[in-house]
Amino acid sequence: MSLTSSTTGGASSLDDAPVSSFHRRIMVVAMGGPFCDGYLLGVMGVALGLITPALALDTLWTGLIAASVLVGVFIGGAVFGPITDRVGRHLMYVLNLATFVVFSALQFFVTEAWQLLVLRLLIGIAIGADYPIASALTTELVPRRMRGPALSGLVLAWWVGYGVSYWVGWALTGLGDDSWRWMLASGTVPALIFLFMRAGIPESPRWLASRGRMDEAKAVVRKHLGQEVSDEELLAEGRQEQRGGSGLGNLVEIFKRGYTVPVVFCSVFWICQVAPAFAVRSFQPQMLSAFGVGSTYGASALITTIAVAGIGLGLVVVNRIGRRSLLISSFVCINVSLIALAVLPLHWAFMVVALFAAFQFFEAAGSGLQFVYPSELFPTDLRATGVGIATAMSRVGSATSTFLLPIAADDLGVRGTLGIAVAITLVGLVVSYFLAPETKDLGLTEASSRS
């Protein structure tokens, strides 16, 4: 049994290995970073209204603080994706989450806006580093039949973290004027839990083979999968994949090797999903209030809970209807929801809440592909680099939209701002229609050779 598809079309042992408790553990542990990211962003949506008077924030500082973590994710993905392809997945897997723990706790003690800005930027860098690490390790360790749901599960974890943060934040509002400190620092708890759970996770045997470390790769496969592979089979993996650059040199190598179209496709569809979504989530209570909805925190918590069901649906159907159909249909439904919010005369609060919930439900259903496509379309030695680039580009869009939303809302109103979101998601629909491939039945080697 081999680690890669043979020249005669044989299936790989890692691609077709029986699903085991080890695979399920990999899937659960990998969810830690996205869960913490969702929690971090969600709790800010609750806390921001309290932070504004406490730190005397104006519109500029409000936008900067809301967008700072997204800028950090851009830096983390762009820088640590290539580094992860160079030094391996395991070391970075632990260090980045430990960093998140420290900086999350320090948020409790901030007294000025710039301090919070710096801490959230650093937290974002740690989260951005985790995305290419977790997705690459998951892709390289789980079998083909589990790959789509496992990678979509990373986004499910983001949504669960985001939803939990709203309920926790809502509960903590009773602690008084400093409740926002407890809200922000509460992210330390899940980060610590997942940090301990990551103990004992091995290095990727595919990455080890790509670096010529055959004995170590064989030992990982033997210990954790109960399989044996020959030196010849591992050497074939090494010969096929060991072509990447060193560290940041992979940023050039990925284009030299002909992966420009996957880079463009993954970056653009991801930007068009998250740019409107992050902006709306960050200021959802304020936007609901502008539509005349009362109890905006409770409504936001309900909307977020419904959105979790959306990614659950995406996880279930990603291997059934396929990646391409899921992505295109989700963009269609997102556009319908946003157009209705932007143009219809909405006089009832329940209709406003229902449309916001529909937008987030369908965006969440398609968002699972944010990890699936980049992880499948790039080879082992460039996988973390590809995911890192797509992650970084997506955060350019989300950070820009989050920063500009309060400014745009002042000038254009909520409906005008939602009109811009419609235009962005229409671009995503068009790009997905022309560039989205179908990879659900392909092994990793075959999927990454379709560029």
TrEMBL record:
Protein localization: Cell membrane
Transmembrane segments: 26-48, 60-81, 93-110, 116-138, 150-168, 180-201, 259-279, 299-318, 325-344, 414-436
Top-rank taxon, per record: Bacteria
InterPro entries: MFS_dom (IPR020846), MFS_sugar_transport-like (IPR005828), MFS_Sugar_Transporters (IPR050360), MFS_trans_sf (IPR036259), Sugar_transporter_CS (IPR005829)
Gene3D superfamilies xref list: MFS general substrate transporter like domains
Domain Major facilitator superfamily (MFS) profile: 26-440
Pfam families noted in UniProt: Sugar_tr
Keywords from the UniProt entry: Membrane, Transmembrane, Transmembrane helix
Membrane topology designation: Multi-pass membrane protein
Protein family membership: Belongs to the major facilitator superfamily. Sugar transporter (TC 2.A.1.1) family.
Protein name: Sugar porter family MFS transporter
Protein's organism: Streptomyces phaeochromogenes
